[in-house]
Design brief:
Layout: E1 4-6, E2 12-13, E3 30-31, H1 34-40, H2 46-56, H3 62-71, H4 77-84, H5 111-117, H6 123-139, H7 145-167, H8 170-187, H9 189-196, H10 203-213, H11 228-243, H12 249-256
Parallel strand pairs: 1-3
Antiparallel strand pairs: 1-2
Helix pairs in contact: 6-7, 7-8, 11-12
Length: 257
Amino acid sequence: MAGKICIICGKEKRSNQLLRHKNLLLDDKFSICRDCANEVADFDKEESVIEMAQLANLPFVKNLYIDVKRNSKNPDFGKYLKKLAPYKKFQTFSDSVFTTDNATETVDITPELERRWGKDYTEEEYAYFESVLQGLMVIKPATTAFEIQRYVANVKLKDAFDTALKEGDPKAIAALRKAYSDDSKDLGFDAVLSGNDDSGKSLTERIQKCELTEPVPDDDRYKDAEGLEKYIKKWFFLSMKKTLGLASEKEVEILNE
């Protein structure tokens, strides 16, 4: 099968060499190759990553950009897209988020920040920790100081896991992956995330979830929605009363409607 022409380098590339972009202005003959996307998106220059995302009509999410920049040995646009993939709410460039949640790439190192995370971290590291913590709070808000301490421990566990991945230590990666996964499950993050994401569920599954979790509206329009009560009353009770000669004239009229 013929490939497509990359609009950046002008070379014909195979499908497995191309970016899965969402730029509707590119017809079937043109695309963007992965090599060019990785070359154009310089992770030392945030604006270049934004421009690449805009060209491909893919979302730019600053928290994920910082994550890839900080934890990847050789950050590139492909690694950024892998980080982006699980988030169903981010589809096109219009879904972009250009700020972090209550954190920037650097922060003022306050005594409160040092008490929470410990000392001897850089401003960027503190900012990253705060950003990840705020992300966890969005997923499942902590209600006690103890829960916040658990969240902080989870963030540090994630940081240790990311460091092991970056350094390529297989033993540490295996141990930390299990520890981080188990801790996230204990905190209930996996259940909340899987419960919140309905994107892969059928309409029937969503209705079943609603029936099991949502309150019944206090509105007469929703009572006996399938008419079962009316059906049973008319065709069982009234019919039985008529057979036994106990039905009133009005009830007989209802049966004859």
